[in-house]
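Problem: given the chain below (446 residues), write out its structure.
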Amino acid sequence: MDKYDVVVIGSGPGGAAAAYALKAGGKRVALIEDDLWGGTCPNRGCDPKKMLVSGMEVVERNNQMIGKGFSRIESIDWPELMAFKRSYTEPFSESFKKGVEESGIDAIEGSARFIGDARIEVGEDVIEADAFVIATGQRPSILNVEGKELLLTSTDFLDMDELPERMAFLGAGYIAFELAAIANAAGSEVTIIHHNDRPLKGFDAELVGSLVKAYEDKGIAFAFDVDVESISEEGQGFSVQGKIEGAQSYSERFDCVVGATGRIPNVEALDLENAHVEYDGHGIAADGFLQTSNPAIYAVGDVVAKKIPKLTPTASFEGAYLARRILGDEAEPIAYPPIVSIVYGSPKLAQVGVGATETADHAERYRLDDRDIAGWFTYRRIGEPVSKVKIVREGERLVGASALSSQADALINHLAILIDSGIVRKDLDRMILGSPTLASDLSSLM
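Solution.
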């Protein structure tokens, strides 16, 4: 039986951040992985998605310049784009594991299950530790309807050899919007099917409406208020059957149907009951110190039941905090900075800090500035058709922002830095920034 100071279960960004920092702090550490080393993000999540988004961005930037020296791009060479993606993902897992081993962390392959409060089993091996960190993440949720086995997932989409001509995405969260935009740019006919009429419910409703309109202008169809009841094979394709608002029937045929109805925590295989760790359908319960109901067991990343966005940088932030906590260098509960959320769509939608709803609920405290900035030089020079920003202030300080444009991902990070650092307009006026750029626009937004 092996004994460690700390065992980390799951090698994604949260687990890896904790493991490397704990090893650097002098602890004997084991990192356990039962799938691809490095976790979802670099292998079948945000990184490969961004590789495909790169192709979408080329099409988008080109097509915004039609009539200005450029001709329309109708599609992408999908196999070549996929080969580009695989040039990154295929060697990643092995390379990541090699880095873990070279750092002096024991890399253990297999599925871990608790057999006691401070003991796990991996295959035939029993391992004890003074502390455990659970960082097993999430996986795609499969809609529980007849024919659900016919549904593809985001994992399948990100590794397609050929792109189908006609595709449907079930769900209207960020995954559906992102993959739909990629497929549309690559030349597929795309439909997003959702059970109500409020897509991307965590984002500003007005900007989401503008995003939906932009998608429709690109030829993406939406079927709202559809209660999907079944998926069935029909010839060489698949039929989606359901009800519209519980009465009128819905039936459409597609070459493939991708389920994008959320993600669920990876907890079942851990046998958490044996370690007296509390959890539910949202994930593992953890306190402000990321400690579970078992004092020797902690949890980080997407497997944790929490209200803040479950994002890769959030997991990394938690892993680094937890390492300091275990090493005795952190006495305070975890305090999150402003967290940026981005939908890598076409255009992109991003937000940070206080939103429009909270502003409306506390009008005596916050002031909202809503701007259409498509005419600004930064956006006019690239033929940007949609560019909107919402700024929320508390006195002179910026406390929240939302943005919709092809540049929203970069802009929102600039704004997040202003929020976190407390920079106000007079501070920006003392700076001489490269112009014209997103950064030089900031003083005008403030």
